[in-house]
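Work Package 3 (structural annotation) set out to generate three-dimensional models for the target panel prioritized at the project kickoff. During this period the team completed the workflow that converts sequence records into discrete structure tokens, so that structures can be stored uniformly alongside our sequence database. As a representative example, we reproduce one entry of 323 residues exactly as it appears in the project archive.
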Amino acid sequence: MLKLKHLNENFELVKEILKRYWEHDTVGLDDMLGYYRISSNAIYPYRFQGEVCFLRLAPVEEKLKKNLYGEMEFIQYLAKNNYPALRPISSKSGDMCLDLHTPWGRYYVTSFRCVKGIQIAKTDKSSDIMYAYGKALGRLHTLSSAYRPNVKKWDHAEVLEWIHATLSEYEAPKCTFKEWKQIKASFDNLSIDTDNYGLIHYDFEFDNVFYDKNFCSVIDFDDGMYHWYTMDIAQVFDCIEEELSNSMIEEAKIEFLKGYRSEHCLTEEMQASYSLMQRFTNLYGYARLIRCVADQFDVEPDWMSELRIQLKSEMHSKEAKMN
């Protein structure tokens, strides 16, 4: 998540970027921009020739350049292999990623086309949908196993280093460092090969996967990293447990894994690591939150104060899982 100071909308900035760098429909633009959302990026919808597109912005200080360019390269690789995922839209200059100096600061900017289908979150999560959902992740991991990039995104070890540095900078409680040490030691004992480790999505949850006629399209590869593939599966399972009723959870997991195994292998060692992956997700999420809420302001809007309280509550919940 971006730092709190970056969570304000900036329609003036977005309009200026669209005007200078991307073709777009001016009619109805204000209405479209009103559907913006800001979390780990600022996402602003717009239309071009009637088609829904998205402009994505993030302050340069919030992102690693190699992760951004690595994301774009991976998405292009997926497109060449006919994998249904979001497609970048080149700017007027032909670039897919722009590094812009603006009156409001320096930003990385990209744009994407909307994918087909509806979010899995808005479906009935039937057996067929869960199977297609798992199949989409399995194929993604199979393609990742054969992927050899020019620009490589960061890996689990680099993320662990970032977590430790962030916990230290913001003086996190001792239990977080103990958790970090245990997770790192456990990771050091896991095997790594092309079948179980590669570039993962890291946010393959219901709101980032769209279902349409027995196949799924995927968006939001921003958080991807090199990690064990079971990380993606563990997060899917967390999502299933949070979103479905108790009577649906087990069948949903079974159908998801059937779909996954139809495209990619899943060993006993990989399955045994689910809880470890969930601990990593919890700790990484904690580090991102402690950084997000660190900035203090003499005067802040009510929505920011309320959000700060909510995020600190999430931090306490994550911290409790480490004790």
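Residues 118-320 form a domain with the Aminoglycoside 3'-phosphotransferase; Chain: A, domain 2 fold (CATH 3.90.1200.10).
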